[in-house]
C-alpha cells in the first residue's frame, strides 16, 4: 500500500498569481512604448509636413518683401493659417544673397499636440522650422548711352542723395517717402542700383569701364554757351540759351539737329534740389547738399562668390575735376582723385578669363551705384568697351558725341552691353518725343508676359506710352494704332497699345508707381493672342519725358521668389 507524501513547509508565501501582475505591468509598458512610438512617429510626420509648409509660406511672404519685412511675415502667416497651420511664433528678417537679391528669412514654430505623452506631462511639443527665399525681380534693361555706343543724346542715369525724398524721383536711394515716413524700397534694394556689363567670351582686350560726370557738381557756367553741329555747318543764331532757370539746374541746349545726329548740347548734368517739406532742405548755393556717389565693380566666381574689383567715390562737394567728362577712374584723373582709388576701372584679360561663361557665351561684370551722402541729383552714365577704343574717345562729353558721330564705322564696344537690373533711372537730355529701350528680351522668352511700370512720372500732358519691339514693325502688332479699350474684342495686354498713366490728378504719378502696371505679351508663333515669330530684341517705349526724373521697373514674371535654403 502506497504511503502518503510528506509536504515540506518552506515558510515562503505562495507565488500563485504573480505572473498575472507581471503580465499586466508588461502590457502597460508595451502600451506606453507604443504610445511614445505613435507620438514620435506623428511628431516626425507633422514635422516633415510643417517643413514643406514653412518653405511655401516663405515663398509667399517674399513677394511682399518690397513693401516691408512685417508685410512679408504677415503674408507668410496668412498662408500658413489658410492651409490649417496655426502658429505660435513667427519671426522674419531681410538679408541679401551673394548675387544681391533681397532675401526673406522666416522662422515659424508650431506646437504639435500629443496623445500619449501628455500622461507624462508633455501636452505638446514645439517644432521650429526656418526657410529663406530670395525675390528675383531683376530684368536686363539696356542703358541708352551704351546702346548708342557712348553718345549722350536722349537720356541718362541719375541718383538722388540718401537724405532726399522719393517725391524727387528716386525710389531706391532716398531714405524717406515723405515727412517721417521711411522708404521701404531702399531697405529692399540696399539703396543700390545694379548694372550688369555683359562681355562676349571671345572679347580679347582689356575691358575699360568709363563713367560720365560721376561727381555731383555743377560748374557755374551761366545759361548760355557755344556749340557745334555734327555736320560742321555754322551754328544758327538764337539757339544757345538753356531751357532751365538757373545754375542750380541741369542745362541742355537744343542744337536743332535731328535725333539721329546730335540734338542736344550738354551744359550742366546735375541739379541742386530744394526738397519738399519733411526732407532736408538746402539752398541751391549750398554745396554741402551735393550727393556723393560710390561706384563698385565686381564679379562672381565659379562658386558664386562675390569678388570685388575696385571702388570709386565721387569727389567732395566742391571738386569739379570730373564735371561733364567721361573718365576711367585711376587712369586719367588728377593726382588728388587718383589717391582715393584702390585700383583702376580697367579689367585685364586675365581677370576677364577667370569669370565664368554663362549659357549665352557671355561673362558678366557688375557695377553697384549707391548714393552715400547728400540731397541733390547726380546725373551720370556708364560706358564699357575695348581699351583700344576708349583711348581714342575724347573726355569732354560733347566732343565725344561729335567724334563718335563723325567716325561711326570705327567706333565699337566689341559686343559689350550694359544693362540696369530691375530698375532703370531716367534723366532726360532730349525733351522731344523719343524711343527709349527699357528691356532686353531673348527669343526663348517668347509667349511670356512683361510687367512694366514707372515711378514718379509727372508729365501726363505729353501723351500716352506706346510699346514696341525694335525687331518688329508697327504693322506686326495686333491693335496697332488703337487706344486701349477702343476695340473691346482685343485683349488689353497685347503689345502695341497706347495708355496714359493711370494715376490721380489726371495722370500725374507724383511719388508713386503707375498702377495698374503695363502687362505686355511677348509674341510667339504658338501664342493664341499674339501669333508672330519672335527673334528677340529690345522692348521700347515711345513717350515724351520733358525734364522729369523718373524710374522704370521691368520684370518678366512680376518678380518671382525662389528658395535659397
What's the structural blueprint in terms of helices and strands?
Elements: H1 18-62, H2 69-82, E1 89-96, E2 102-113, E3 124-136, E4 140-142, H3 144-147, E5 155-160, E6 176-178, E7 181-182, H4 184-189, E8 192-200, E9 207-212, E10 251-254, E11 264-268, E12 292-300, E13 306-313, E14 326-327, H5 335-338, E15 346-347, H6 349-354, E16 362-373, E17 377-386, H7 387-390, H8 397-405, E18 417-421, E19 423-428, E20 434-441, E21 449-455, E22 465-469, E23 498-499, H9 504-507, E24 518-521, E25 537-543, E26 550-555, E27 560-563
Antiparallel strand pairs: 1-2, 2-3, 3-27, 4-18, 5-17, 5-19, 6-7, 8-16, 8-18, 9-14, 9-15, 9-17, 10-11, 12-13, 12-16, 19-26, 20-25, 21-24, 21-26, 22-23, 22-25
Structural class: alpha+beta
Distance between the termini: 93 Å
The helix content, as a percent range, equals: 10-25%
Would you count the extended β strands for me? 27
Number of helix segments? 9
pLDDT averaged residue by residue: 79
Strand proportion, as a percent range, falls in: 25-35%
Q: Give a short account of the largest sheet.
A: 9 strands, antiparallel
- Gyration radius (Cα, Å) is 33 Å
Count of all domains: 3
C-alpha geometry: elongated
The stretches of 5 or more residues where confidence is low (pLDDT under 50) are 333-342, 479-497
Structure description:
There is one protein chain. The chain is 17% helix and 30% strand. About 5% of the residues have low confidence. By secondary structure, it is an alpha+beta fold. The chain folds into 3 domains: 118 residues, Pantoate--beta-alanine Ligase, Chain: A,domain 2 (2-Layer Sandwich), CATH 3.30.1300; 219 residues, no CATH class; 135 residues, no CATH class. The chain is elongated and about 125 Å long.
Amino acid at each position: 500500500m502506497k504511503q502518503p507524501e510528506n509536504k515540506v513547509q518552506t515558510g515562503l508565501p505562495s507565488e500563485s498569481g504573480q505572473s498575472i501582475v507581471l503580465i499586466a505591468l508588461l502590457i502597460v509598458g508595451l502600451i506606453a512604448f507604443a504610445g511614445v512610438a505613435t507620438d514620435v512617429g506623428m511628431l516626425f510626420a507633422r514635422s516633415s509636413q510643417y517643413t514643406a509648409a514653412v518653405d511655401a509660406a516663405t515663398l509667399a511672404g517674399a513677394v511682399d518683401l518690397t513693401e516691408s519685412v512685417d508685410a512679408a511675415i504677415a503674408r507668410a502667416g496668412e498662408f500658413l493659417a489658410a492651409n490649417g497651420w496655426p502658429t505660435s511664433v513667427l519671426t522674419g528678417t531681410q538679408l541679401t544673397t551673394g548675387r544681391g537679391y533681397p532675401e526673406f528669412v522666416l522662422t515659424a514654430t508650431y506646437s504639435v499636440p500629443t496623445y500619449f505623452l501628455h500622461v507624462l506631462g508633455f501636452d505638446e511639443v514645439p517644432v521650429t522650422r526656418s526657410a529663406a527665399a530670395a525675390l528675383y525681380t531683376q530684368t536686363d534693361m539696356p542703358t541708352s548711352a551704351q546702346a548708342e555706343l557712348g553718345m549722350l543724346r536722349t537720356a541718362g542715369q541719375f541718383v538722388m542723395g540718401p537724405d532726399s525724398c522719393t517725391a524727387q524721383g528716386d525710389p531706391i536711394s532716398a531714405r524717406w517717402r515723405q515727412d517721417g515716413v521711411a522708404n521701404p524700397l531702399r531697405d529692399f534694394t540696399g539703396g543700390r542700383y545694379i548694372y550688369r556689363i555683359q562681355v562676349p567670351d571671345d572679347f580679347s582686350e582689356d575691358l575699360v569701364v568709363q563713367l560720365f560726370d560721376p561727381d555731383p557738381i555743377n560748374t557755374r557756367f551761366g545759361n548760355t554757351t557755344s556749340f557745334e553741329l555734327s555736320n560742321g555747318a555754322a551754328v544758327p543764331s538764337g539757339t544757345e540759351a538753356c531751357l532751365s532757370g538757373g545754375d542750380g539746374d541741369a542745362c541742355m541746349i537744343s542744337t536743332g539737329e535731328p535725333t539721329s545726329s546730335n540734338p542736344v548740347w550738354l551744359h550742366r548734368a546735375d541739379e541742386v534740389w530744394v526738397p519738399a517739406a519733411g526732407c532736408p532742405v538746402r539752398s541751391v548755393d549750398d554745396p554741402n547738399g551735393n550727393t556723393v556717389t560710390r561706384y563698385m565693380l565686381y564679379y562672381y566666381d565659379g562658386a558664386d562668390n562675390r569678388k570685388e574689383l575696385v571702388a570709386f567715390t565721387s569727389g567732395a562737394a566742391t571738386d569739379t575735376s570730373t564735371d561733364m567728362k567721361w573718365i576711367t577712374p585711376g587712369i586719367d584723373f588728377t593726382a588728388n582723385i587718383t589717391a582715393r582709388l584702390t585700383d583702376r576701372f580697367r579689367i585685364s584679360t586675365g581677370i576677364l578669363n577667370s569669370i565664368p561663361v554663362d549659357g549665352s557665351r557671355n561673362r558678366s561684370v557688375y557695377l553697384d551705384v549707391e548714393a552715400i551722402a547728400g540731397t541733390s541729383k547726380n546725373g551720370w552714365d556708364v560706358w564699357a568697351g575695348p581699351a583700344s577704343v576708349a583711348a581714342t574717345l575724347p573726355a569732354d562729353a560733347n566732343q565725344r558725341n561729335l567724334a563718335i558721330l563723325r567716325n561711326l564705322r570705327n567706333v565699337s564696344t566689341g559686343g559689350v552691353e550694359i544693362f540696369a537690373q530691375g530698375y532703370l533711372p531716367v534723366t532726360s537730355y532730349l525733351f522731344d518725343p523719343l524711343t527709349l529701350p527699357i528691356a532686353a528680351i531673348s527669343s526663348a522668352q517668347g509667349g511670356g508676359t512683361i510687367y512694366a511700370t514707372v515711378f514718379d512720372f509727372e508729365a501726363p500732358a505729353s501723351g500716352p506710352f506706346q510699346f514696341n519691339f525694335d525687331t518688329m514693325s508697327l504693322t506686326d502688332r495686333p491693335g496697332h494704332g488703337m487706344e486701349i479699350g477702343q476695340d473691346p474684342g482685343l485683349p488689353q495686354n497685347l503689345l502695341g497699345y497706347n495708355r496714359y498713366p493711370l494715376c490721380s490728378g489726371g495722370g500725374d504719378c507724383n511719388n508713386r508707381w503707375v498702377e495698374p502696371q503695363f502687362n505686355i505679351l511677348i509674341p510667339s508663333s504658338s501664342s493664341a493672342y499674339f501669333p508672330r515669330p519672335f527673334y528677340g530684341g529690345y522692348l521700347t517705349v515711345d513717350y515724351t519725358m520733358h525734364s522729369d526724373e523718373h524710374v522704370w521697373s521691368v520684370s518678366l514674371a512680376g518678380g518671382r521668389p525662389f528658395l535659397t535654403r
